[in-house]
Amino acid sequence: MAASKRHFTFAAAALTAALAGSGQAQAAQCGNSAGGFETWKREFIAENRGKVSANALDALAGTTYSTATISADRGQRSFKLSLEQFMAKRGGPTIVKRGRALKRSQAALFSSIEQRYGVPPGPLLAIWGMETGFGAVKGNVNTLSAVATLAYDCRRSEYFTDQLYAALTLVDRGILTTSTRGAAHGEIGHTQFLPRNVLKYGTGGDLNETGAALSSTANFLKAHGWQRGAGYQPGEPNFVALQGWNAASVYERAIAIIGRQIDED
């Protein structure tokens, strides 16, 4: 072996040992089945001792691999439908009818939100109706297990690892617990906020309470470029804020149409 090669090998070995000693060794390995979840979890917890509170890591230790989450993640076929098919499948006319009634019955709430954030009732009601049927179906999957499962799953591990850190912060703040339940990807509340969005855009209060959820949704839209008084149909200034809410084109257009029909009533 040449001296230069030997020097490089020794240096590389020293670097590897240093990284291992400083806690910067290779991260916990993702997987594509339940088999590696417990190992991944132990590695993740070991890597984060001293960085994440013991209470939050204990909560993570109690999570289980969520087959319901993986099934939902692999089965999002409705976003491939045409706009007309999507509107029919999601019950667009029903959302419009119920949304108009709620706009009238909760006029004071929506007026207060619009005054503060500049967002009219229509898009908020469209999102609320589309996400949970106005709170009727908020999901029954353990939230921490859902987020941990997706952080482990190789398909979008980096994205959901960020969500997992946010979820563990919410555990420390008492916003999430080991018994919190919601949608299959870890969304919670009336309008289905992921953990990072709770941290960034939540306006305080329980997102299972209507006012807090709708205010937080309006705050999200404002932070994504919503302009008071501007239109929100495709090509108009506020459509970009709806795109921030959901990346699926068919969803964005459906929200714009339903919101307009509610606002025009």
TrEMBL record:
Keywords: Signal. It holds the Pfam family SLT_2. It comes from the Bacteria. The keyword Signal applies. Residues 1-27 form the signal peptide. Residues 37-232 form the Transglycosylase SLT domain. This is Membrane-bound lytic murein transglycosylase B. It comes from Methylobacterium aerolatum. The lineage of its organism: Bacteria, Pseudomonadati, Pseudomonadota, Alphaproteobacteria, Hyphomicrobiales.
